[in-house]
Structures are given as structure tokens and as C-alpha cells.
């Protein structure tokens, strides 16, 4: 039975899980403005845009193209679908994928599944990519994950779970930061939250929706750590 109350916490695996997340968080903040994190920031932007595309497809819309720019911006061109679901899907979907990757890292089998799904998603997006930044990012991460997978299976360098966890933590932290920077600290009238406020009947502006989405993203992050501890108990 799942140990929802986390009785007798924490065993070795649980401590290692939380310490690794803590170390990755410190490393990410220390290297935040360096080029070393740029590929991982761009993969977060990719997951943001891919979430828009998934929401569009799930609501019977058509995805005309996806772009990820070197300045950490991106755009998903869609036609049709439920606009009120497509708009919040970017930020919230990115946070969800961060949580999913963190949880997948708790077990080698799920880490393999996550890596395989990630590679498949990057291959699929090559058919929708509209600029070479996204194409190069996709190809680069396909090669990167394939190498990590081969090292895991063929050598004693078994770091697949840690790579998946790092991408998950990076994605979760960058999603929360991105919501604050894009939607809360300043008003950008072309932002997803401002557009959502225009079509939503609720008396809430873009900043308000940014705060709500930010809280949901933080809940995803906290929930991933709690559920990770439950899984490892």
C-alpha cells in the first residue's frame, strides 16, 4: 500500500532523491545566466509550445507549426480547437511535464520510458518545426538522450535517472520563473494570460491569471516531490 502519510520517512532512496533535487536546484540557480543552461531552457520552451500543440490537437484543432527561438521565446501556430484550453496549456502543461519527469526518475524502468517518449516527441516535432533553432534543438537532444541511454545500458556510467530528474527539475523551476517574469512582474498585452483574460468571463486580468497559473505550477513542483517520496517509501 502507498505510504501516503510518509511514516518512517526517510529511507536512503528518499534522502538521495531530495538531496539530488536540492543539489540540482543550487546548480541551476548558480548557472542560470550562463550558456550551459541554454539548451535546457530551450527544451523547456519546447515543452511549453508542445503543450499548446497537444491541447490544440485534443480539442480537434490543427497545428500549423511550432517555433522555438534562441532568445528563449517561442510560438505555436494553431487553427481551430478550444482557445480557452490552448492558452493556459503552455505554462501549465510545461509544469505538468516537469512533474512527470521528476516522478519518472524515481525508477529506472519509468526513466527509460520517459526518455523513449521524449525522443519520440522530439522526432515528431521535427515535422512541425518551422525554424532551425527548434530543429537543431530536437536533433541535439535526440542524440544526447540516445548517448545517455547507451551509456546506461552498455557501460557502468548509469546516469539516465539523474538526467531525467535534472530535466524535470529544470523544467519545473523555469516554468515557475517564466510565469513570474512573463505574466506577473510585467504586463505583456500579447501574453497567453492577457489573451485568456480577454475571453474568460471572470473579473480577472492577465496578472491575476498569471498568479493563479503560478500557484498551480508551484503545486505541481511540490506535488512531484511529495509523490516521489511516496513512491520511494
Could you explain how this protein is built, in words?
Helix 2 (38-58) crosses helix 5 (132-154) and helix 3 runs antiparallel to helix 4 (108-125). The chain has a two-stranded antiparallel ribbon. The chain has eight helices and two strands, in the order H-H-E-E-H-H-H-H-H-H. It is 70% helix and 6% strand. It has 233 residues and is mostly helical. A hairpin with a 5-residue loop joins strand 1 and strand 2 (74-79). The radius of gyration is 18 Å and the shape is globular.
The shape, in one word, is globular
Structural class, judged by helices and strands? mainly alpha
Cα-based radius of gyration, to the nearest Å:
18 Å
Instruction: Give the strand content.
Output: 5-15%
Quote the average pLDDT: 90
- How many strands, what sense, and barrel or not for the largest sheet? 2 strands, antiparallel
CA(first)-CA(last) distance: 10 Å
**How many beta strands in the DSSP annotation?**
2
Order of helices and strands: HHEEHHHHHH
Strand arrangement across the biggest beta sheet = 1-2
List the helices and strands and how they pair.
Blueprint: H1 12-30, H2 38-58, E1 62-68, E2 74-79, H3 83-104, H4 108-125, H5 132-154, H6 160-184, H7 192-199, H8 206-232
Antiparallel strand pairs: 1-2
Helix pairs in contact: 1-6, 1-8, 2-3, 2-5, 2-6, 3-4, 3-6, 3-7, 3-8, 4-5, 6-8, 7-8
Amino acid at each position: 500500500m502507498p505510504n501516503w502519510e510518509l511514516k518512517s520517512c526517510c529511507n536512503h532512496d528518499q534522502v538521495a532523491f531530495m538531496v539530488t533535487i536540492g543539489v540540482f536546484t543550487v546548480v541551476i540557480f548558480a548557472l542560470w545566466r550562463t550558456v550551459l543552461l541554454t539548451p535546457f531552457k530551450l527544451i523547456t520552451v519546447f515543452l511549453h509550445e508542445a503543450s499548446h500543440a497537444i491541447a490544440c490537437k485534443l480539442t480537434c484543432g490543427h497545428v500549423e507549426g511550432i517555433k522555438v527561438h534562441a532568445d528563449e521565446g517561442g510560438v505555436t501556430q494553431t487553427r481551430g480547437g478550444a482557445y480557452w484550453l490552448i492558452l493556459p496549456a503552455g505554462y501549465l502543461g510545461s509544469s505538468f511535464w516537469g512533474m512527470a519527469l521528476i516522478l519518472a526518475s524515481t525508477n529506472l524502468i519509468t526513466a527509460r520510458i520517459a526518455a523513449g517518449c521524449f525522443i519520440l516527441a522530439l522526432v515528431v516535432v521535427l515535422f512541425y518545426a518551422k525554424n532551425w533553432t527548434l530543429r537543431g534543438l530536437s536533433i541535439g537532444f535526440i542524440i544526447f538522450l540516445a548517448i545517455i541511454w547507451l551509456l546506461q545500458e552498455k557501460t557502468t556510467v548509469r546516469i539516465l535517472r539523474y538526467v531525467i530528474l535534472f530535466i524535470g527539475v529544470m523544467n519545473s523551476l523555469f516554468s515557475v520563473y517564466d510565469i513570474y517574469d512573463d505574466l506577473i512582474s510585467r504586463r505583456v498585452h500579447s501574453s497567453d494570460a492577457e489573451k485568456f483574460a480577454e475571453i474568460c468571463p471572470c473579473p480577472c486580468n492577465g496578472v491575476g491569471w498569471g498568479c493563479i497559473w503560478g500557484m498551480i505550477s508551484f503545486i505541481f513542483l511540490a506535488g512531484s516531490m511529495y509523490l516521489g517520496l511516496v513512491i520511494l517509501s
